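Fill in residues.
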């Protein structure tokens, strides 16, 4: 004599309608939350630190040169633009004129203003004839804004990459590679329902 099994569930299905649902009884599926390949993420991580190190080294080198040139004589004077040379700068024309020191003892003809924006008339400028980065070799004079921007640029090139690199390394230590989260289908359905309710409430 054979007994009929209940049609609601098979004995070996692992499904008990009184305690669980069919969605919770299904085997979990692997859901990938990131579409970027892991190998590409590793390549970007491996290239980021050398790039940041190079920028950091440029900032430190710029700062060292500015410190070494800090004791070099700098003469103040007036720069007067005579013309704007087209094609001398990638950002447009470059101001060309003459410079006269405040005491009138020094005069420079056919010098560039170390600033790419076009200026009409006269402006106060400075001339540093000696040093590692001297104006005699480059044939330029510098505005006060340009001289102030130099140490700020060096500090930004050194501090910025250092902060970004430290933050990136700390983040990578917490999560070496993007992980694949495994959740049951029932949990996935619940998350979808919550997402739909949140979208409908907006």
């Amino acid at each position: 004599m054979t007994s009929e099994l209940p049609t609601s569930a098979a004995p070996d299905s692992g499904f008990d309608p009184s305690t669980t649902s069919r969605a919770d009884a299904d085997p979990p599926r692997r859901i990938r939350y990131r579409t970027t390949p892991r190998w590409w993420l590793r390549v970007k991580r491996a290239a980021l630190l050398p790039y940041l190190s190079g920028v950091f080294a440029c900032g430190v080198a710029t700062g060292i040169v500015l410190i070494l040139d800090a004791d070099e004589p700098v003469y103040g004077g007036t720069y007067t633009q005579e013309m704007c040379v087209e094609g001398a700068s990638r950002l447009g024309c470059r101001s060309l004129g003459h410079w006269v020191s405040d005491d009138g003892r020094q005069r420079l003809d056919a010098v560039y203003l170390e600033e790419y924006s076009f200026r009409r008339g006269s402006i106060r400028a400075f001339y540093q004839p000696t040093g590692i980065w001297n104006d005699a070799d480059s044939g330029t004079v510098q505005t006060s804004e340009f001289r102030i921007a130099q140490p700020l640029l060096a500090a930004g090139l050194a501090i910025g990459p250092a902060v970004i690199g430290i933050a990136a390394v700390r983040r990578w230590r917490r999560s070496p590679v993007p992980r694949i989260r495994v959740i049951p289908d029932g949990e996935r359905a619940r998350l979808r329902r919550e997402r739909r309710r949140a979208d409908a409430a907006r």
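The beta strands are 29-31, 75-89, 92-101, 107-113, 122-127, 140-143, 181-183.
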